[in-house]
Input
Amino acid sequence: MIYRFQKHIPVIDESAFIHPQAAVTGNVIIGKNVYIGPGAAIRGDWGGIIIEDGCNVQENCTIHMFPGVTVLLKEGAHIGHGAVIHGARIGRNCLIGMNSVIMDNVILEDECIVGAMSFIKAEEKFPSRSLIAGNPAKIIKSVSDEMIRWKTEGTALYQALPKQMHEDWEPCEPLRQLPEGLDAQKSEYKSWKESKG
Output
């Protein structure tokens, strides 16, 4: 659902897909080919939120801020399931792992990868291509070309998803049994382990 707050109405490019079970409120700008999953809460009431082209904010993520702050997700940022971004700036083509928490005034430069369930405390700044993990999070090593290629390929799936959702998605009644000859689909996308082998 999309909500006005005071004078602010979200601005959303028509190519973006916002799941109806997500909540986008107030001073929010969402760019082209952005995917916002169900359960995401993007709340621009006390400050602004800018989500640039090609980003994805997956299921059950929260994006918010303290008063007067603008949250920025730069082009191609990939926010994994359940992550919290509070008052931070996420660089171009970064990946935030599932259930990670990125606190106030954090700056991630371009192409950083944050491991799942990491906690980045307020005011931290990380240079481009940092692999960051832990609680509190710290730099583990530099992100390799191979890692960023894998990340970019995964994000490309989400960049294609909004168009697919607009064209071929609708609520439906469930089937009561699996039709004969129908198997679960296998993706051609390779996990990080598979891509290394």
Observations:
- The mean pLDDT is 95.
- The longest helix spans residues 145-167.
